[in-house]
Design a protein that fits this description.
The chain is an alpha+beta fold. The protein has six helices and three strands. InterPro entries: ArsR-like_HTH (IPR011991), HTH_ArsR_DNA-bd_dom (IPR001845), HTH_MetalResp_TranReg (IPR051081), WH-like_DNA-bd_sf (IPR036388), WH_DNA-bd_sf (IPR036390).
Length: 110
C-alpha cells in the first residue's frame, strides 16, 4: 500500500495514470505529453510499475503501458475500510450477505 501512495504523491505520475485511463500508450506517446527527459519519464513509469499501477508490454521496439485499475481500486478500498469506522459495519454486513448466498454463516468464511 505504501508504494502505491508514494507513486500517487507525484503530479507527473498522476497525470500519466490519467492519460492511461483511456487506453494503453507507448512510452513515446506518453513522453510526447511531458516536458521532461526520457530518463526522468522512465523513472516515473518504473515507479508506477513497481507499485503495480501500470503494466508494460514490449512489442517490437516499443513498450506499451496500460493502467492496472484493480490494484488502485483494491488498495484505496482497503485503506478506506481501515481508516473509516463506518466501513467496518458495512464490511461485516457484506460478509453476511455473501455468506447467506453460499448458505454458510459469516464466521465460517474466513
Amino acid at each position: 500500500m505504501e508504494r502505491i501512495f508514494e507513486a500517487l504523491a507525484s503530479t507527473p505520475r498522476r497525470k500519466i495514470l490519467a492519460y492511461l485511463t483511456e487506453g494503453e500508450l507507448s512510452a513515446g506517446e506518453i513522453a510526447d505529453r511531458f516536458d521532461m527527459s526520457k530518463p526522468s519519464l522512465s523513472k516515473h513509469l518504473r515507479i508506477l510499475e513497481t507499485a503495480g499501477l501500470v503494466a508494460s508490454e514490449k512489442r517490437g521496439q516499443f513498450v506499451y503501458y496500460r493502467l492496472v485499475e484493480e490494484q488502485l481500486t483494491q488498495t484505496l478500498t482497503g485503506f478506506l475500510q481501515t481508516v473509516c469506522p463506518v466501513s467496518r459495519g458495512l464490511k461485516r454486513e457484506a460478509a453476511k450477505v455473501q455468506a447467506a448466498k453460499r448458505g454458510k454463516p459469516a464466521a465460517e468464511q474466513t
